[in-house]
Every structure is written in structure tokens, then in C-alpha cells.
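REQUEST FORM: STRUCTURE PREDICTION
Request ID: SP-0412
Submitted by: Lab K.M.
Chain count: 1
Length (residues): 666
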Amino acid sequence: MPIHQPTQRSATAPGEPLAVKQAEAALVEHYPRLVRLAYVVLPPSLGRHRRVLAAHGAVQRALPVTRTAPARTAQVPAQSRRSPEAGRAEAPANAPYASMRLRVLRTALAYERRPRWWPGRLPAPAALRPTLPVVWGLRLFPRAGGVDELALDRALSEVPGAVRAAFALQLLDGLPETAVRALLAEAGVDDPAGGAVRRAARLGRPDRAAAQVLLRSGEFDPCTVQTRPSDLLRRRHRVRAAALAAALCVVAGTLAVAAGNDVRNEAPGAGVTVPALDPAALLRTAAEQWADTSRIDFTAWPVRGDRRGDGELLGRALRAWSEPPGNVQVSTTPGTVDVPPAQPPRLLFAGEVDGAAVVLFHDGGVRIVRYAEPLAGGGGAALDFARTDDADVTTGAAVVVSRTGEKARFLLAPWISETTTRDLLAPDAPGRPLEVGPDGITAPVERPAAGGGCDAWPVLQLRSSERIVENHAFLVTDLGDLAPAHLTYTPKPGGGAPARQPREATGPEALLAWARTACSLRALSGSGVRAVNNWAFAEQRLPEGGASAEWLCTRADTWRGPGRVLVQFLQPAASPTAPAAVVADRNDTALCSRFGQHILAGTHWKAASGRWYVLAAGSRAVNRIEATGQVRGAAGGPTLAVRAPRDASVELTARLREGGTLAAVR
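STATUS: Completed
RESULT:
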């Protein structure tokens, strides 16, 4: 969206009277920027509707009351049109705009300040003040953003208003830290050591430019809002209740007072039904829709379970999602937010599994939510959130509904026609049939060992239905999240053949590779992994007449985007399940993906003679490898082997066939 940038103009110098007309001109010209600033600084606890109105009210009340109100601008150093950080647009420090900004900051920050005598559970006095604008019968909220915007809003909600103000001033107005400290002090922030500015500098790291884009998105724009009606039933009940109360006052004033006391003693929000949290408003997919749609993901799952009509259970689950009580244990996979739904979610399952009532929701966008409460005993409920962006036939094929001890049960997608289990550490053993109930719940499945020994690695082998023209088998494994990870395999490059693409890891070659690398999956547990691919990027003949060794790049892609790679060296071994040696580990990288198709890695290796070598291998585009440092050597082609002491420090580089160089991954 276009951002209204303040323009440089002649203005009254700081400290001189500021005319109302200049203030009005500054407000009109910079209104969207000021309202956005107020919205970011205001406490998120107000809710988006009240924040929108409070942000507009803060800006509209910033005009001076008299025609010659003194300007109260922060004394800040002169600012250039560009910030020291490249790409950050600055707002000019002219007196009218600076004065309006200071007034807006003071008002927004006041919403979070409470006098010492003020009850701790009540909002600050400023938040209770009735001010214009006022909206009746509608709820206003900015346009919903994506997961990144939600994550930023969540991060801002966890810091004080002074930190949010410093963050907004740096990214929206491009002020340097010294100017931000001076402006916060002028606004009444008691922060002598600049702690708010330092904390604000840590928000949005490591990519502050991306954070700046997010802060300027529609998620934080209270000038471009969506509307929804407030709870119509609640309004109607209020009107009826008011009429009844008036009649009771006429007939018996004492009874009306007693009734009012009873109402005031109710828990806050009692009887209030928000549409997104109304069990009757839950979305439900028809049973056969999955076979007649081009979108094969969680939106095509029909609702299942023998308690899918239990309004009380669904209501408890939705209320726990909205505001989890203290006895509800909440867990989220990395990069997942636990905010309430903005619209009614889709119900996938509600039933009893392993002694618990379980409810599964899909919010229609990027999350699966699981609620589970014990059927007996005094234990608390559990609420789990997981990302499921752009799920498909394989990554949307199953969800964990229950974990008990060392076993788990899965709810399968309606397009799964065949289910078996197998052990990755037994590549030659056939799959074993797995029983699936009428509601799509599997029998208990052994879980991979979280720690200690690695004697087995159970996986599900699923086959999709012919009704969606897929009819192929694929592997998924439980890595501790709600959605199991999809396992694939990319075979070795062929001579002169085009680059291979990942394929299902169900063939003999893929199963043998996974038998050597399955135990490395333990390092990925609970990290929100969507899929893991084993890419055999090179094969190397070992020195001294040895057999061939394989180089694998095991890439784990997360639901939130970043990936992790483990480069593994598979030397000849007596056992087909001998673990490979991990020679490199890199987080948050595009290596070994379609956006990082070139790789070089190396390791020290001991021959049967006792001599040590440095081995290196690169992907198919590598045509020369060089070793420098304590050992020097070079080789044409994608592999290198050079004699070297066991602990020799070596730097490896490669040249690419298309031009350019490549450093070894560590």
C-alpha cells in the first residue's frame, strides 16, 4: 500500500508558537502515518477494534486547543533525508509534524500507564475514557496479514509500550537511536539508560528490512479496515434485557438492584458469543468433497468423530483457544502463533481417543489446532498449535490425535486408501498392514526413539486413492509435531542427465539411503519440519583401491520456510544400517533445495592402511576442487582426495561449470 511520506517544508522553529493551521495541515498530510504509529504503540490487549478507534482518537485529539498553543517538540539532532541504515525512509523533523507526533505518542503511551492507586486488573484510565470516533453495531479491524505479520504482532504484544514506540519510530520514521531516546524522554518515558531503544533494536532481527515491510503492511494499517457486525444476538438480548430491567424498576426497584448485583458478579464476558468462537458457526466439509476438488489439503477433510455434534465440548475447545485458562498446557511449533481465530475455523474431528476427548480444528490458513481434555481425573487440558502452510496430498495426509507413552495414533486424510508401517532400519523388510478405524483413526503406532539408542525408526507408508488420480505410495514419520514429516529421496546424478528431482522414498535405493541416515532425524524433533529429502549429490571412489562412498545432503524444510541441512558421508560398511558420518550442519539455508542446487563438502578419512586423507565432493555442476591451507591439492571434476594429517586445517573451494566459485559447507 502507498505510504504517505511527510515532505520537507518551512516551519516554525522548535520552541516557537505553533499555529493551529500548521498543526491541521500536518495532521491532514500525515494522518495515515500518525494513526499507524499510534496503533503500533497502543497496547494489543485493547483488542483490534478498540485499538483502531483509540489510534484515530489519539491523532484527532492531538490538535492544539488554542490558536497559539506552544509547540512541544522533542529537541532532536538534525536529520538527513536518509537513515544511516540503507533503504530506511525518514520522516522530516519539521515542527508541525514533530509536535503532532509527540502529542500522539503521549496519548498512546498513556493507555499503558496506571497510577499507583489504580487497580491492577483494570485498564489504564486513558483506555476507559469515551472518545471519538465511536462506532456502534460494527467491529473494525485491519486487513489480516500472513504468519509473519502475526508473529511480529505477537512479538510486539510481549514488550512494553515504550519498546513498541521505539521500534515504530526507528522503522516507520527512520529516526536514529539518539533521536528516539530524546523523543521518548520528551513523551514522558522513564528510561534513562535507553533500555527500550536497545530492546527495540532486537525486534525484527536478523532482517530489519523485512520487519520494516511488515510494519508498513495492512496488518498494522488502521486506516484501511474491514468491518464485521458485532454479535447481533447479544445486541438483541441487551435490548430485551434493558426493557425488562426498566419494567422491573417500575414494579420492584429493589429486585432490579439485586439482579444488577448478580450480573456484576458474573465473570467478565459471561454469555458473550463471538462469531468465530461459536460452535454453531464452525465450518464443516461434506464427506465426499475431497474427491471432487482441485484443492487437496486440510480444507477438503470432512468432519469426523462421534462427538462432532457435542456443542459443549466444542465450546470449551474454542474458549480455550481464545483465552487458555491456567490449567491448559499450550504448545506451539516454531513460527506458529496461538492467537484466536479471526473467523470461524473448520472442524476436522471431535471424538474420544485413548481416554481423552480430542478436537481438531483447521483455521483455513496456516494452522492446525488440537485440543484434548481427559475424560476422567483432574488433569488439565492440552492445546497444541502447528503450521500447515500449503499442505498437499502428502503433507496433509495425517495428523497426530493422540500420544501415549511410546505410541501415537493418527487421523488420516480421506484420500488415503492403503496404510502400512515399516522400519527404516530394516530396508529389506516388507511393510506391515495397519488397522484404521471407520473414523480414520489408526491403531497405535510405535514412535521413533527421542533419545538414547536408535534400534528402529518406524514410519507410515501411505497410498493415495485412485479417485484423485495420484495412487502413489509415500512415507511420513513422526518428529514430535502434529503433522508428520514427508520423507523423499533424490538419486545420484547420471552421466550427462539433467538434474534429478525428489521422489518418493519407497524404492530399494531410497530405503537403503534412509537406513544409513534415519537416526539423524532425531536432531529435527519438534522443530516444525514439513519434509525431509535425502539427496545423493555425489559418488566418490576412495583412495588406495577402496570401494565407492556416497555423499548425501539431508535437507529438512520447515513449514515456516527456513531449512536445515546435514551433509552425510556414507563410506562402505558391513551393515546396511551403519549410521553415516555427519560432516556438516547448517541452519537457515537454501542449500540442497531448488534455490541452492550447488554444494561442496569435505571430511577427513582414514584408509585401511592407517593413512589419513582429506576427501571432498561437490554436486554435478562442480568441475574443479582445490584444497589450500596446511594441505594443498587440486582435482578436476566433482571429487578430490589428497593425503593430509588427521587434524590438518584445510580450506576447500570449487569452481562451477557455468562460472563462479563455491566454498565448502561446514
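NOTES: The two ends are 41 Å apart (CA to CA).
Reviewed by: T.R.
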